[in-house]
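Chain X:
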Amino acid sequence: MLLLRESGCFGVLLGFESICPATLQRIDKGFNKVSRYRENLERFHANRQAVLGSFVFGFDEDEPSVFEYYAGLHRSGENRLAALCPLDAFPGTRLFTRLEREGASSTTMGLLYFPTRGFSPARMSARQLQEGFCGFGARLLPGAYYKRMFDIRSTPSAGAEC
């Protein structure tokens, strides 16, 4: 981390992806240790590095309660900046092949891929996924989030809220 700072780097993107160890194993990211997410964020922040934490919603292991866990990371200020994505199945991936086999439709538009999101994870409905994702975004974006976004080198306060 010292080399990052000395090189002039002031932030990193970390692909956390999920809070579920089983999901991480299944998507070949078993090296991500959920139990160390908060510790790792603290290490970067102590080194005055901004972290853009990337999370994906909609894996089969996700339940509706998954959104509250993510919201807690943001309310606490531990993950100050977020890239939040609904699960997308890109052509040529195992997920795309599986969803095609299951009859979920999709379209490709230029270089960008837009799924119809007509599928749902095993443990929540498509509606719960959409409402959870949209509701999470609405809770995340107001007030303190913007302050943290534009003041990436600040230290989070103990009771910071989104």
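Chain Y:
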Amino acid sequence: MARVKRTARSASPPNENTTRSSQDARLQREAEIAAETANHLQSLDRLLQATQELMKEEPSLDSEAFEYLRRLRVKVRFAISSGSPGQSVQLPKIPPMLFENRQDRNQSPLSFVQATYKQWLGKGISRADIKKLDKKLYDAFFNWKIPTKDLDAIGLPTKRRLNDAKLAAAGRIKAPSRVLRLSELPPADRDLLRLYNLAKNRKSRPPK
């Protein structure tokens, strides 16, 4: 009796449309989570503002309590403005990949930066940071004539625009306490001190 050979079916590669649908669903879910988190932060900011108004009716509270509340509101506003709630995202010290080493030579610098720096876009990275990390990528923005609005849209603003957003979110900034050394300060407090010095320097400059 002849034996019939049974060949195992090889697993077919995932359909391109299925993969794309899966990626779209994941991106949509990430957007929903980000929007939900932003709503929670805005509610928290309103709650802190109401708390501050109630505290003003208590003369027994000292100024230190108001200062702690103010600094907490600043941190919440930072999170709202940057789209990065929680701890600050640590920016890369070396480029994950250089633009000149990309596999697809037709890939635009806009597409490249979206793929390579996805986890940092909209979370504190600026074009000045890209210039330090990958000068050829930065130059490619101009060589390929990438519109400024497109870079802003993906979360890659200029350093000045990024600082403007943080200053607007922080409101009036008081001189932070320097009980601790700069290296001992939490990241949010170091950022607050940097913004205070930035606002101070801008006020001292003569108008152009």
